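so ive been stuck on this for like two days lol. basically i have the seq below and the ligand is zinc ion, smiles is in there too. i just want the complex predicted, nothing fancy, no docking runs or whatever. if the output looks off dont worry ill sanity check it later, just need somthing to start from for the group meeting slides
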Amino acid sequence: MAYTPTIGLEIHAELKTKTKMFCDSRNDPDETRPNVNVCPVCMGFPGTLPVVNKEAVHHVLRVGAALDGALVDYTEWDRKNYFYPDLPKGYQISQYEYPLVAGGMLNGVAITRVHLEEDAARNQHSGDGYSLIDFNRAGLPLMELVTEPCIHDAETASAFAQNLQLLLRSLGAGDANMEKGQMRVEANISISKDDTLGTKVEVKNLNSFKSVEKAIAFEIDRQTEALEKGELLVQETRGWDEVKGITFSQRKKEGSHDYRYFPDPDIPKFRLARIPGFSKDEIKNTLPELPWEKRARYISLGMTSTEAETLVSDPSYGSFFDTEVLARMNDANAIKLGTNYLLTDIRGHGANEDELQRLSGGAFAEVIALTMKGELSSRGTKDLLEVLLKEGGDPRALAGERGLIQMKDSAALGRIVDEILSENTAIVLEIKNGKQEALKYLIGQGMKKSKGSANPGELEKALVERISAS
Ligand SMILES: [Zn+2]
């Protein structure tokens, strides 16, 4: 009988706030100079007092409401005691008994809790016998989300983390960039042959969705192999070596009692619902459209799941679609055509937010209208979009200037055909005598005369008609 893997996730995400969790030092993830965003509070000087960051609490409650978790009314803060050089106070302020959010669901995965704590500083080990510490990160608001051990494969774990990242971004709660360490995933993995849970191994340092998947798959194989050989697994913390593609033992796991949690006496207890803007209803009513709601809406418009996913995972394209395609194009065919040009050509071009801005305010809808009317060929549409993305401008005027409008006016086309025929009597005679390939030359003349605006098909048709009638 095969082993069933059981996976639970612990995800930490730095929140986007003006200041740190318990002091007014700046929360600036782009700061590259070490130890500039620090103060006596986040440096753990004796006699300082923490003040809770309201914005951070608000972010976590919004995340909780979006996940349909229970938002607590009463909450308090606890000290998690341990010594490490990146923890200036000798304890981390976290939440133990009263997390801000209990329960909830994301991507079919049940959530145990979501709480708020402070981040530690960043150690830089030189390898020459000393280490440097950058305290800019010490005290940043850090959300911790814990799932139930109810995931059974690596792909579901990775999809969960991706959807959480989308949610944090769409709520403006955090950038959750994994490469920058703004979102950090730990996976608890065990395998067993029956309903009991096997020995749990925690894997840390997963800093991309790919590593989440690869590390879990590796760990399932490693544990299966060990048990097959009759070895005993130990409860431990393992790291992930991205280069070698393996997990390695870091330390044996401490139990939570080692941290001597107790309520922080320096921070008041909160009745959240009594704070204006923090009641469950107020929080729920101010949520934007959530990523999975957006996904369902796009699918219901007839998009493929890949198209919907592109718009959901790229907010600038999602909002461009909503305001410039959906809101401005009334016709289902125009919307379909617009979606196509947006996802294939504009996105294929890698257009950024500034470039999309130049196509906004109705310009894109006007281009698509010209295409729908046959005034722009598909080549012409692509060329015009390219110019508009780079330089902006009025679509119709630009298309005219650049000779991209196809000539639909049959009188004008007739005048051009007359001119060609009278200027090329010898060639016309050759065609009449059966030299059909000479027709191409006349079409070329017509395209030149119309400055490229004639439709070559129509030009050919008109020329053939006139020659055979003469
Ligand atoms: Zn500070």
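The longest helix spans residues 209-228. The chain has three domains: 4-282, 291-401, 410-469.
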